[in-house]
Each structure stands twice: as C-alpha cells, then as structure tokens.
Amino acid sequence: QAQLEESGGGVVQPGRSLRLSCAASGFTFSTYGMHWVRQAPGKGLEWVAVMSYDGSNIYYSDSVKGRFTISRDNSKNTLSLQMNSLRAEDTAVYYCAREVGQYSYGNDAFDIWGQGTMVTVSS
Amino acid sequence: EIVLTQSPGTLSLSPGERATLSCRASQSLSNIYLAWYQQKPGQTPSLLIYGASSRATGIPDRFSGSGSGTDFTLTISRLEPEDFAVYYCQQYGTSPPITFGQGTRLEIK
C-alpha cells in the first residue's frame, strides 16, 4: 500500500541547516503533488510547502519562504526539504503528505501522510 | 490568506451522541476545497472528508461533511469511543497558501 517515510530530523542550532527526506513507496510517486506540513509541540497543523507532480508548481508559506527549498527526485521516489537559517520557531514534527488526486497542482487534500520527523532548533 | 476558524475549541460528549463541528472561512471557498482530518494523540493526521462532503476511502458513513461558501460542518452521527480526537479543517483553494483551522478537541464527557 502507499507509504511515506520521513528522515533527517534532529537537533540543530539556530542559524544552521538541515535536510529532510521523504521516501515514497507503493504508488506512482511521479504522478502526485507532494507537500510538507509541520506541527509544533502541542500545536496545530501548519502547511509549509508544495511541489506539483512534475515540479512545475512550487509554493511556500510566508513563514519559510526564502529559507526552505522543496525538491523531488521522481527517479528515486523521494521528496526533500532543505531548511536553512533555522529558527527556534521552526521546531516541529515535519510530515510529508500526498495529494488525493493524480496530476494536480498543489490544490488538493492530503490522503497519505508519513509518520513525521522531529526537528528541534535549540542552542 | 484564508483564515479558518473552528468552533467550539473543545466539545465534550458521550459515546452514542451526535457531534457537530464547525469551520468558518474568512472568505468564500468558491470551489468547495475544504477537507477535514482526524488526529489521535501521538498519531498522524488522517483524511476524513474532502471536497467538503466526499468521504475518504475507508471512512465510516457516520462521518459526514456539509457546507459551502464560508460555513462548513463535520457531523459524526453517533460517536464511537475511537472518535474522540482532535479534528482539523483545511482549505486547499485554487492557489496556496493552504491553511488549517486551529482544531477542535472532541473529548469524552
């Protein structure tokens, strides 16, 4: 069945960088738009970024724009999030999520979620 | 950015009762791009409803979604013990940013 597995989280100092990965399996990764969503400890869900199935549409939340970069490698079924200039407020569990429909451009609900990877930004 | 406001913040009910959760958008969602998710403690969010009223795969029919424009509702017709969780609405409009409501905690009375 369709699965997503995030990796790359950890503890990092403010101002440093971290790269998250999301490995997809059980579905045709190259036909789905993919998102990153985060959840700070004890808080609600916050959308972070999206890349359409073909990489042509990329959007970011204002809170990460200019610092985070989303990318995908359809040959390796992998989604990535490069996070630079990290801040304490970036501390959260980061989830990758798949859109419901194939061939959409970032305007769809999310039907498959990974288990998440924790990022802690602290000195 | 479209702001979603969920009410109530916490809803206390007993198993077998009917639950009605509200989600109000700061502007009209012209294409009904509204979803509902359930998140249990320590677990990943799971999709319940998309397109305001379409149940996701495997979701029991006691869950239903309705609404249009700026006002949307998730109804759980008869609460089961496993339904007590946090529920989030999400709008995924015609262009980002995608936004979530702040959540409604459904707790056992």
3D structure, described in words:
The complex is a heterodimer of chains A (123) and B (109). Chain A is mainly beta. Chain A has strands at residues 3-7, 10-12, 18-25, 32-39, 45-51, 58-60, 68-73, 78-83, 92-102, 110-113, 117-121. With 109 residues, chain B is mainly β. Helices cover 0% and strands 54% of the residues of chain B. The mean pLDDT of chain B is 94. Classes of the chains: A mainly beta (123), B mainly beta (109). Chain A binds chain B through residues 35, 44-47, 50, 59-62, 95, 100, 106-111, 113-116, and chain B through 1, 33, 35, 37, 39, 44-47, 50-51, 56-57, 88, 90, 92-103.
Count of helix runs of chain B: 0
- What structural class should be given to the helix and strand makeup of chain B? mainly beta
Radius of gyration of chain A: 13 Å
Distance between the termini of chain A: 40 Å
Which regions of chain B contain 5 or more consecutive residues with pLDDT less than 50?
A: none
> What order do the helices and strands of chain A follow?
EEEEEEEEEEE
Secondary structure layout plus pairing:
The complex is a heterodimer of chains A (123) and B (109).
Chain A: E1 3-7, E2 10-12, E3 18-25, E4 32-39, E5 45-51, E6 58-60, E7 68-73, E8 78-83, E9 92-102, E10 110-113, E11 117-121
Parallel strand pairs in A: 2-11
Antiparallel strand pairs in A: 1-3, 3-8, 4-5, 4-9, 5-6, 7-8, 9-10, 9-11
Chain B: E1 4-7, E2 10-13, E3 19-29, E4 34-39, E5 46-50, E6 54-55, E7 63-76, E8 86-91, E9 99-100, E10 104-108
Parallel strand pairs in B: 2-10
Antiparallel strand pairs in B: 1-3, 3-7, 4-5, 4-8, 5-6, 8-9, 8-10
